[in-house]
Amino acid sequence: MKTFKSWTDYRTFSFNVRRNNRYIYNQATEAFLEAVIDTSKKREASILKGAVLYRAQCGCERRPVYDDAGSEIGDEEWPYAEDRMVPVKGNSFEGRANPRGITYLYLSNDKNTACAEVRPWKGVCISVAQFLVKRDLKVIDCSKIPGRTPVFLEEPDPETMERRVWADINMAFSEPVSPHDPETEYIPTQIVAEGFRETGFDGVAYKSSYEAGLNIVLFDLEAVEMLNCSLSKVKDMKFDFDHMNKGFSCRKGKKTS
Length: 257
Fold this sequence. Notes:
- This protein has about 260 residues and is an alpha+beta fold.
- The protein has one domain (about 45-235).
- Helices cover about 25% and strands about 25% of the residues.
- It contains six helices and ten strands.
- Strands 1-7-8-9-5 form a five-stranded mixed β-sheet. It has a three-stranded antiparallel β-sheet with strand order 2-6-10.
- About 30% of the residues are buried.
- The model has no long low-confidence stretch (mean pLDDT about 90).
């Protein structure tokens, strides 16, 4: 079985495909991807037929309300229709797992996680759809890693090295997508996801950065069907800041603290 060469292999791979060899891989990138596929077998998981997954979109429609005489007296919030909740195949923007024009379906195994992933603001309405899994699915579960991701001063044993690389892979998928991110930031995880797809997997699961649930990307839009759609509203939000001790002062000779 192929193994990783260093605990920093994912970082090296990420830099190479973003800055050096993107379409024709060098030897180090080829070796890394082979090791990912070989070690992925330990992280195979199943999503059984009949399971329910969730997908959220910020916003809703407004529909007219009529009185008994048929006169319009106002409007009300209503969840988005199916054509808004299901992406159109071949018409997609860059995503954490998919390149532009190749459409995957981003779901969660938990309703709160699906809502949090769209990064709503207080008071906003969220349309939340339920999707029924139509067949047994085989996915790679990147979340099967320990919580800590230590830094090593020298190369650890192969098992620890493997766990550390997969922790980096999970973190790369979990990192929130921003519309301001350059498209090159998605390239490493898109390549890894495509490797999973070509190996015969139906999708990839990874930890959410916001909630306790998992995010699940499915490669086949036909593997699920939408059951319903309902509204949720954000009641409250909480921010947790890490104020880093770095910066600069506009006054010469002064340092920030």
